[in-house]
Write a structure and sequence with these properties.
The chain is an all-alpha fold and 362 residues long. The chain contains 13 helices and no strands. The protein is globular and about 70 Å long. The two termini are 37 Å apart.
C-alpha cells in the first residue's frame, strides 16, 4: 500500500513540475507576444495538427529514448554518469564503419551487425569510466565529461580527415550508407522511420533486464545500498562496470539508429546534445524504462511545439528551451527534497532505535 502511495505521489510531483514549467512559459508568452493566445494555441496543438508534425515528434523522441534508457540504467546503480553523449558518438562511428566497410552481407544480416558493432563501441567506451570508478573510485561525473570531449574530438578528426567522403565538398561526413541499410520511413504520409521499432524493443528489453533478472536486481540493490549488497556477496565493483557498459551500449545504439534513420551518413556533430538531454529524460522518468518512453515523447513534444509556435506566431522557439530548463529545475528540486526527506526519516529511525537500545540496557 505504501509503495503504491509513494508511486502516486511521485507521479503527481512529476506531472505538477511539468505543468508548472508550462504555465511559467505561457506567462512569459503573455509579456513578449502581441498575440499570446495564438502563440499558446500553436504551441499546445501544433505538434498534433497534422501527420508530418506527429512524425517529427516521434522521430525526435527516438534518440531520446535510447539516451534516456542509457542513463536510467546507470542512475539506478547510483552512478551519475554524464557520458552518454560521447558513447553515442563512438557507437555511431563504429556502427558507421561496419556499415561502410563490411562487404557482401545481405541487409537482414548486415543491419543487426551494424547495431551490434555500435553497441559494442558504446559499451567499451563507457566501460573505461566504469573501470576508473570501480578501480580507483574516480568520480564518474569528471571522467565521463572528459571522455565526452575525447569521443567528440576524436571522431571529428576521423570524419574530417581519414574517413571523409571525397565527394562531400565542404561538409564533414563519411560516404552515404547503402539504401538497403537505412531505417526508412514507414510511409510517405507518416514519415516515422523504423528506428521507433528498435527503440520500443529496447524499452521492453531494459524493463525485463532491470526488473525480471538477477543482474537487474543486483544493479538496483547496489544503487540503493552498496554496503548491504557487498555483505550479501555481490561484487559491487563488477556491477558498476557492467551498468556503465550497458548504458554505453544503449547510447551507442541510439547513435547509429539516428544515423541510419535520419542522416543517412555519419556527419560531424550530428548529435544535438542528445546525450545530455537523456539526463533530463531519466530524471523525469524516475529511471523507469516505461517512464523514459513517456518522458522522451513529452520532451520531443516541447521541441516540436516550439518550432510550430515560431512558424505560426511572433514568439521564438527558444521559449521551449526556457520551458525545458524550468522543467529540469522543478524536477531536480523535487528529487533533492525527496532525498533530504528520506535522510531525515532514516535519521529519525536511527535515533529511535538508539533510544530503545539505551532504555533496554537501563
Amino acid at each position: 500500500m505504501n509503495q503504491k502511495r509513494f508511486l502516486y505521489l511521485d507521479l503527481v510531483g512529476i506531472i505538477g513540475a511539468a505543468l508548472l514549467a508550462l504555465i511559467c512559459g505561457f506567462i512569459i508568452i503573455l509579456f513578449v507576444s502581441d498575440d499570446p493566445l495564438n502563440a499558446i494555441s500553436a504551441f499546445i496543438t501544433g505538434p498534433f495538427s497534422n501527420a508530418f508534425n506527429i512524425s517529427t515528434l516521434v522521430n525526435k523522441a527516438i534518440p531520446l529514448i535510447f539516451t534516456g534508457l542509457a542513463l536510467a540504467v546507470v542512475f539506478q546503480t547510483n552512478v551519475f554518469s554524464m557520458g552518454a553523449e560521447g558513447q553515442l558518438y563512438v557507437g555511431g562511428f563504429l556502427g558507421s564503419l561496419s556499415a561502410l566497410y563490411i562487404p557482401g552481407l545481405p541487409a537482414f544480416i548486415h543491419i543487426p551487425v551494424i547495431l551490434i558493432c555500435a553497441m559494442v563501441g558504446g559499451a567499451l567506451f563507457g566501460g573505461m569510466a566504469g573501470f576508473l570508478k570501480a578501480k580507483w573510485n574516480a568520480h564518474e561525473v569528471v571522467t565521463t565529461l572528459m571522455l565526452n570531449y575525447v569521443a567528440i574530438i576524436l571522431t571529428s578528426y576521423f570524419v574530417n580527415n581519414v574517413f571523409k567522403d571525397p565527394e562531400s565538398g565542404g561538409f564533414a561526413r563519411m560516404p552515404f550508407f547503402e539504401k538497403d541499410l537505412l531505417l526508412g520511413k514507414m510511409s510517405n504520409s507518416f514519415p516515422v522511420h523504423y528506428g521507433i521499432i528498435v527503440a520500443l524493443i529496447a524499452v521492453v528489453v531494459v524493463y525485463l533486464l532491470m526488473y525480471k533478472t538477477k543482474i537487474g536486481y543486483e544493479l538496483r540493490l547496489v544503487g540503493k545500498n552498496d554496503k548491504f549488497a557487498r555483505y550479501g556477496g555481490i561484487k559491487t565493483k563488477h556491477i558498476i562496470i557492467i551498468s556503465v557498459m550497458i548504458s554505453g551500449a544503449l547510447a551507442g545504439l541510439g547513435g547509429i539508429v539516428e544515423l541510419l534513420g535520419v542522416h543517412g551518413a555519419y556527419k560531424d556533430s550530428f548529435s544535438a546534445k542528445l546525450g545530455f538531454d537523456g539526463i533530463i529524460i531519466a530524471l523525469l522518468a524516475r529511471n523507469h524504462p516505461i517512464g523514459v518512453l513517456i518522458s522522451a515523447l513529452f520532451y520531443a513534444y516541447l521541441q516540436v511545439g516550439g518550432q510550430v509556435m515560431q512558424a505560426q506566431s511572433d514568439v521564438s522557439r527558444e521559449l521551449s528551451v526556457i520551458i525545458q530548463v524550468l522543467l529540469v529545475l522543478f524536477v531536480s528540486a523535487q528529487v533533492v527534497f525527496n532525498y533530504l526527506k528520506q535522510r531525515a526519516i532514516m535519521k529519525q529511525k536511527n535515533q529511535t532505535g538508539e533510544k530503545k537500545v539505551n532504555t533496554h540496557v537501563v
